[in-house]
């Protein structure tokens, strides 16, 4: 199995960009693209398959690292790189995969890459469904099989992923929504926001909010706020 991590990087400082690319390649990464401003990266991401990770400078012209993080965090792991540690809080508020201070130390970068490799391997090593219609969930000290047709959505809370169905909420063995989506491609799940991914068939209604966002009513009778991207993806999936 190829253990190389495919990355794209952006930094408006030429020397910092060159150094980061060199360190990443030395660490076993394949640097697919390098950019001097955020908008150039955003345009590239729209026309190319997503890499395994993005490394972004926080302060860049056009679109900052935080701007790109807010838009793409649900689709690809993002590591922020900056000389200012005050951005660390914002990075983790947006669930960045990691936060590196300049000048990036090779040993510190190696730890980041190892976590990314475990994350990538974890997605590829997920067990397949035991049957086409059920998944295994945790019940007490044992395991029960839950019918996919009864599932409304998955949500992550405190590092655990729960599946919500018509008759309750159950703990799963997954640790991220990306793992769920990779393991259950036949469900065609739609990511509403950072913490919830839904089965489109469970949607019972939509309510329009300002700035292109929507409240989504699911089969459990609860409403959940979708991000702008999640609202667009769900509307497209439902043919609205």
Element layout with pairings:
Elements: E1 5-10, H1 14-26, E2 29-35, H2 38-47, E3 53-57, H3 65-72, E4 78-82, H4 88-93, E5 98-101, H5 106-124, E6 134-139, E7 142-147, E8 151-157, E9 160-165, E10 168-171, H6 177-183, E11 190-191, E12 196-198, E13 203-208, E14 214-218, E15 223-226, H7 228-238
Parallel strand pairs: 1-2, 1-3, 3-4, 4-5
Antiparallel strand pairs: 6-7, 8-9, 8-12, 9-10, 11-12, 13-14, 14-15
Summarize the structure.
Helix content is about 30%, strand content about 30%.
Would you mind describing this structure in some detail?
With 240 residues, the protein is of the alpha/beta class. It folds into two domains: 5-124, Rossmann fold, CATH 3.40.50.2300; 134-238, OB fold (Dihydrolipoamide Acetyltransferase, E2P) (Beta Barrel). It is 31% helix and 32% strand. It has helices spanning 14-26, 38-47, 65-72, 88-93, 106-124, 177-183, 228-238; strands at 5-10, 29-35, 53-57, 78-82, 98-101, 134-139, 142-147, 151-157, 160-165, 168-171, 190-191, 196-198, 203-208, 214-218, 223-226. The strands form four sheets. The chain has a five-stranded parallel β-sheet with strand order 2-1-3-4-5, sandwiched between helices. A hairpin with a 4-residue loop joins strand 11 (190-191) and strand 12 (196-198). The model is unreliable at 87-93 and 124-132 (pLDDT under 50).
